[in-house]
Write a structure and sequence with these properties.
Bound molecules: adenosine-5'-triphosphate, L-homoserine
Catalytic activity: L-homoserine + ATP = O-phospho-L-homoserine + ADP + H(+)
Strand content: 5-15%
Oligomer: single chain
Number of strands: 9
Order of helices and strands: HEEEHEEHHHEEEEHHHH
CATH architecture of the largest domain: Alpha-Beta Complex
Pathway: Amino-acid biosynthesis; L-threonine biosynthesis; L-threonine from L-aspartate: step 4/5
Keywords: Amino-acid biosynthesis, ATP-binding, Kinase, Nucleotide-binding, Threonine biosynthesis, Transferase
InterPro entries: Aminoglycoside_PTrfase, Homoserine_kinase_II, Kinase-like_dom_sf, Pseudomonas-type_ThrB
CATH superfamily of the largest domain: Aminoglycoside phosphotransferase (APH), C-terminal lobe
EC number: 2.7.1.39
Amino acid sequence: MAVYTEVSADDISAFVAEYGLGAVLTFKGIAEGVENSNYLLQTEGGSFILTLYEKRVKPEDLPYFITLMDHLAARGITCPRPVHDLEGVALKTLCDRPAAMVSFLNGISLKRPSFAHCGELGRALAELHQAAADFTGFRANALSLEGWQDLAAKAAPGADSVAPGLEQTIRDEIAWLEAAWPHDLPSGVIHADLFPDNVFFLGEKLSGIIDFYFACNDALAYDLAICINAWCFEPDGAFNATKARQMVAGYQAVRPMTAQEIAAFPILCRGAALRFLLTRLYDWRNQIDGALVRPHNPIPFLERLRFHQQSLSAATYGFDAE
Ligand SMILES: Nc1ncnc2c1ncn2[C@@H]1O[C@H](COP(=O)(O)OP(=O)(O)OP(=O)(O)O)[C@@H](O)[C@H]1O
Ligand SMILES: N[C@@H](CCO)C(=O)O
């Protein structure tokens, strides 16, 4: 259960009073989530999520995340809308942690998204990219090529204990990506962690996108490559080409991609697979005794990487052949 900071009833009542939302009706910790402490809060003024930001989110990045959610919500994206207190402040402090309240979004996240959900996701991702086009904040992607080198230096030595040959695979892949990585693709704000657990649906309709705490500025097509990795492989590791085709079509119906983006797409998929392989490998090999949450298994992303290494054509992912 990921509630790292316990908040007392007195603390929460005093905190909520600063927003003028009436009395607190119910207040309970949310088990899901790894990074922060999250509470579901019902007040006379409505339902909200209260987040206390724990160690893995850098305080200096929080204004970027909060103002981005403000910006996107104002443009009709169904993301959490930060609640501002009576003095207009959204990023506050509670129990010595940075804290914010955001709107509660209805819907459920899916363990087994369908073709239709993948199409919806593609469309919503493109809408998010377009809605953020005039956002003026900037945050570099700490988990792009340079970050992977640093992470690999920490996570890869001895990684053969997780899978034979993994250390060499990582070293070779980074060398390959350094040579191949595209640097001049259309860029802007990307979500950068849009896995199924961060997306809510009501039936087939997408009702919410959450967890903007990896958002940053990078190539837009890279965000779609992350989603292909996160949504279009089945539990047995098989790539689902139909899901990818639907997602790509959904995306392109809103924001048609350039020829350069399409040509680079297989490389971006390799990079995205490596990114999650490395972060998962690091967490897997640095488990903390007594931690509340089990780290994700890195192996599925090694398998995805191997798949992408074999398929150097954009047609694999559902782009029409030139
Ligand atoms: N705005 C929201 N509306 C409804 N539920 C939410 C909202 N924000 C978060 N939740 C719920 O809280 C859970 C944890 O949220 P979130 O994924 O942001 O946590 P986290 O600690 O940042 O974890 P991680 O980054 O590992 O996913 C979600 O799975 C969801 O159930
Ligand atoms: N989505 C990430 C976890 C961090 O948000 C993963 O599946 O590895």
